[in-house]
Prior knowledge:
- The chain is of the alpha+beta class.
- The chain has 2 domains: 6-64, Ribosomal Protein S8, Chain: A, domain 1; 77-131, Dna Ligase, domain 1 (2-Layer Sandwich), CATH 3.30.1490.
- It is built from 3 helices and 8 strands; from the N terminus they run H-E-H-E-E-E-E-E-E-H-E.
- It has helices spanning 6-19, 31-42, 115-121; strands spanning 24-28, 46-52, 59-64, 77-79, 88-89, 103-108, 111-114, 125-131.
- A hairpin with a 6-residue loop joins strand 2 and strand 3 (59-64).
Amino acid sequence: MSVTDPIADMLNRIRNAGAAQLDVATIPYSRMKGEIVRILKQDGFIRDFSVEGEGVKKTLRVVLKFSRERKPTIRGLRRVSKPGQRHYVGTAEIPKVLDGMGIAILSTPAGILTDGEARRQRVGGEVLCHIW
């Protein structure tokens, strides 16, 4: 099945798995999705992830993280740049999500970076999503 916006599809799968209190979300693999999930693990939003399968059948297996009350660690996800309306920012306009309580994920010439890493490296790019 063809998906118009694979990043939004991934974010929705993670959001839905958290709302249903599922421990694992399974997502079709791409390098960009793999980098976004790597950032989520690095910043403590998910417990772990793995890439399974071979060739075009690869999938990302994302293990979600919950609080003691079984509430998901990821409180919100928002797709910013969409296929019909891209959102590019320079170094000075990189957004702070909830005054630093969340992260913005950007696609830059230096790769997929968080807002803080993009500021440190002084690169702008396309704002993919906000996560808090």
